[in-house]
Write a structure and sequence with these properties.
The structure is a homodimer. Chain A is α/β, with parallel strands linked by helices. Chain A is elongated, with a radius of gyration of 29 Å.
């Protein structure tokens, strides 16, 4: 029995059935190339009969993949239609992929009640459709929909459907837990049954409605399946598909299987985050292996242990999946957490104790330093007296007027030593305008600020219970030279919260570049 | 063998180790009462030696729970200290709970390397600590930390630790997969081993680092465990604890076990959402059973099937966990989706086809109607010519000035028939001020608007790649009489996006109350 498990990705088809996802052709191409780079074996690119956008994708993707086999998805022929005349199958041929995945019902209830077929009809549709595509030299994978439910109510028929697929020439038969309701031991049992019924290699396609998609996929592998279908980050309809970012490292690191391009496993986190960014979805911070929290330790007692022996609370090395260990400074923390992150603190000093208290108080007011290490750094360094005052904010004003057009404008007045600077900025909105005005004012004295670029901006309303008067937390990510700066601001006023985060990013850039404050009389050149 | 599984909740202790959670004493009391209402058997209230805040919680909670047993968490005595003198154990006694949960190492590596103990020391600490608390008439649960890793490296010692706990009088022994790295079949195997080693009933405490916490908990039950420890919504350190909102319905609906107050299972979704709200965390929309997407169907082919037979793609009835089925209108949808939601549409008309196109276009521009059914309704009803124009917006202006103080102000000018109304509003921030000004202006002509209350406000930056110039989507939830109104607005300008959502909420309230537009000459009383 082979040790290698085929990884079959359906992010571009099943994954897009997740609420809130909408991928352009270019998005799909980027993701397909990424999957190819990571050694995925099959990339299900779309459902040509259902989505005409996919035809263009298939054309363009053809020349871009060097390893992964592009796959077109579709249904078996319709009842009463000849295979040659069936639009579904025609669309698959037109996609000109090397591989086709056909889905068909493997449950009595689904075939008869949902599709209104006779049991014999269904078997013929399955066999003929597969045979037709095989005659056109496609590799054919058969997705046996509702297989596990089918087994539970009428196992003989479910197995008959598999045999029909085998007779049609399918090279893979994938057993689908389509409504996501099965348990792992049931999966193993029925996969073993299927192995005795057909000689074709088997795959598993699980859904997460019971929180068991990963477990069910691994249980199928234990039962003898050698292909796992899933999506990056578990995207999919309802509660999602089986998460390949969880399954892949489990297969390789825990179950001694081979899968994908294993050298790339140590960049798994990059794969997960990049796909999330392309799909414009927030990453799941608690995701196994790749989530921001996966190797983040908070409780004091864990932190103490982890400093001595990382494996104390980690099941795999963070680096093996492209992460590194993080220790949070938070209210559950003690000095351990601060000391882990800031090596210039004197463990025995009062300053450290006060700092822990200060952080706890600020966090209670809504500040979150876990995501804003630059603001945290400023807080610590200011407490040690290491951060000078670079400028004073005298006033700011931001406004939005909608009359015929929408106009956003902001003015900022800052004081540096004896001089003051007033500047106006225009922008897409009030925050953008403030940002523009601030930079205009500052870069006259601190030209280095022109190298500070705002990259990402997030707003979170903290306690929605007060409607539009709620506390708001703004997070900003900037790039400055080669460094990423992340800062935070909190207020009931979204402009003020944004302003705090902007000021921290500017202060940090000036501080980290050792800029001398202009009002100290020297030319403000960075050292 | 009993059919009943004890549900042990540690949301208030292990759950708080999740990044981003910080619960006040009042928050903890609310959650504890909720757990009590749902029939949870044990509520681990805190860790008194580690968190002084917990002492107050234990005092106040004592009188409020009618079913659940309040539990204090803590470690076995320290090395070289007598039990009577140990501060940990003293803190547990002072909490005056009926139950104590003590954790101790059950792995050679953990005991010797992390804690620096001799193997014999560790056994004595376990036995003596438990015995001490039993002598004080507490029910004692022993959490065997790192049990599964311990078994993998030195199974004899791991079992010795369990026997020491049994000798000390522990009434429950909970096997912990502390670093979350075990697989389900390993869990079942070692639980069965433990059952042969001790006579004390066993529990399971799983972590989700491999995406298997739920599966591991169920595997332990299959192996004979009769207690499951976990948290609501799977909150916890790193990738979280075992999610009791997933485990409980699986146990009752799939595994024929009894657990909790089963009548309350059909309000499970309320439990999950309320705890998320108290913890001030966004709910996980894709969570099994309780997530907003769990019974939400998007793809056209699923929708068609589900309209005929709901069980086609649902593994349990949505009502059995406090949900109802939802069909999304989205770009993957066809007419089926619109027709499911809007019964006054004529399936054959051009209007429906155009509407589907319009929705797809708007969604491509960032609008999300899945969360904003009131905006969707307005869109549909406007296309049918059913929504009159209640007022015209001539101008608005919003500004924020920070000088000595922070001042937010907005002016709104609206036209109704021949009259115009200009009003100014002050507020915590620009959006709040706009909201105040708008209501001031409108309620002079439409007094019914005073019954419209803004309840929740969310902002999402859609494509962070453009920094502060990014597209922003604002969602607003309002209450109007007994109805919940949810509306959306999208723009690069956050004030304009908020304004759109506010206007939709006002239009919806006026339309749903059959208000006659004032400029039609009649008194604008609702029918």
């Amino acid at each position: 029995m082979t040790n290698r498990i085929q990884l079959y990705d359906t992010t571009l088809r099943d994954g897009t059935q997740r609420r809130g996802i909408s991928l352009s052709v270019e998005d799909k191409l980027q993701i397909a190339q990424l999957l190819d780079e990571f050694g995925f074996d099959y990339v299900e690119g779309g459902w040509p009969a259902s989505n005409p956008k996919d035809t263009m994708f298939f054309q363009l993707a053809k020349t871009r993949l060097t390893h992964a086999k592009l796959t077109a998805f579709g249904s078996t022929r319709r009842r009463g239609v000849f295979v040659e005349d069936d639009a579904n199958l025609r669309a698959i041929l037109d996609a000109q992929c090397p591989v086709a995945t056909l889905f068909g019902k493997s449950s009595v209830f689904q075939a008869t009640q949902i599709l209104g077929l006779s049991l014999q009809d269904n078997l013929e549709m399955v066999e003929e459709s597969i045979q037709f595509l095989r005659q056109h030299d496609l590799e054919v994978i058969f997705d046996a929909e509702h297989f596990f439910d089918g087994c539970k109510s009428d196992v003989d028929y479910a197995l008959q459907v598999l045999r029909a697929a085998e007779a049609g020439g399918a090279q893979w038969i994938v057993l689908c837990d389509t409504n996501g309701g099965s348990l792992p031991h049931e999966i193993t049992e029925y996969v073993e049954l299927a192995r005795r019924a057909v000689s074709v290699p088997l795959g598993i396609h699980a859904h997460n409605d019971s929180g068991l998609a990963v477990a069910n996929s691994l249980a199928a592998v234990i039962g003898g399946a050698t292909m796992v279908q899933g999506t990056i980050n578990g995207y999919g309809e309802r509660c999602g598909n089986a998460n390949l970012c969880t399954i892949w490292p489990n297969l390789v690191y825990k179950m001694n299987r081979q899968a994908g391009r294993e050298l790339m496993l140590k960049e798994l986190t990059r794969l997960s985050r990049t796909v999330a960014e392309i799909a414009n979805l927030m990453p799941d911070d608690s995701a196994p292996f790749v989530g921001d929290n996966a190797f983040t330790h908070k409780a004091g007692v864990h932190v103490g242990a982890v400093r001595k022996f990382p494996e104390a609370y980690e099941h795999v090395h963070p680096e093996s999946v492209g992460q590194s260990r993080r220790i949070l400074v938070s209210e559950l923390a003690g000095k351990s957490n601060l000391l882990y992150n800031f090596h210039n603190l004197d463990a025995s000093s009062e300053t450290v104790t006060e700092l822990v208290q200060t952080v706890k108080k600020l966090e209670a007011r809504g500040y979150q330093y876990e995501d804003a290490p630059s603001s945290m750094k400023l807080l610590v360094e200011r407490s040690l007296g290491n951060v000078p005052s670079y400028f004073e904010v005298d006033r700011f004003h931001a406004s939005v007027t909608k009359d015929q057009r929408m106009i956003s404008e902001a003015t900022v007045r800052i004081i540096i030593g004896n001089e003051h600077f007033v500047e106006v900025g225009e922008g897409d909105g009030p925050v953008n305008s403030l940002d523009v005005a601030l930079r205009k004012a500052l870069s006259q004295i601190y030209p280095i600020i022109e190298g500070l670029r705002l990259k990402d901006y997030k707003v979170r309303v903290l306690d929605g219970r007060d409607g539009t008067g709620a506390l708001v937390r703004v997070w900003i990510r900037s790039e400055f030279r080669d460094e990423t700066i992340q800062t935070v601001g909190v207020s009931r006023n979204i402009l003020e919260a944004s302003w705090q985060a902007l000021l921290d990013s500017v202060d940090y850039a000036l501080w980290v570049s050792h800029t001398v404050p202009a009002h100290l009389g020297k030319q403000s050149q960075p050292l």
